[in-house]
């Protein structure tokens, strides 16, 4: 009885150690094209001023002043 049980365990262990070569699906190297929705009037970079120039405008502004302008800057962080 012990030899049958031992043989059963050996067969079970040998069967569990078989390597199966399952093919993993290959990932597509194509990047999907991201489309963004635009709301409101389209902003065009014509007549945009640099960040340093905008800083000078900001220095001469008083509390409550406002100006309509466009500026070019690098966005480092967004929430």
Furnish the topology, listing elements before pairings.
Blueprint: H1 2-16, E1 49-50, H2 51-60, E2 71-72
Parallel strand pairs: 1-2
Summarize this structure briefly:
The protein is mostly helical and 79 residues long. The protein has helices at residues 2-16, 51-60; strands at residues 49-50, 71-72.
Helix count? 2
Using the CA coordinates, give the radius of gyration: 34 Å
Strand line-up in the sheet with most strands: 1-2
* Helical coverage, percent range: 25-40%
Strand content: 5-15%
Structural class: mainly alpha
Residue-averaged pLDDT, rounded?
A: 81
Beta strand count: 2
Along the chain, the helix and strand elements come as HEHE
Largest sheet: 2 strands, parallel
Distance between the termini: 70 Å
Report the principal-axis shape: rod-shaped
In terms of per-residue confidence, which ranges show pLDDT below 50 for 5 or more consecutive residues? Answer: none
Notes on the protein architecture:
The chain is mostly helical. It is 32% helix and 5% strand. It has a two-stranded parallel sheet with strand order 1-2. The N and C termini lie far apart (70 Å). The model has no long low-confidence stretch (mean pLDDT 81).
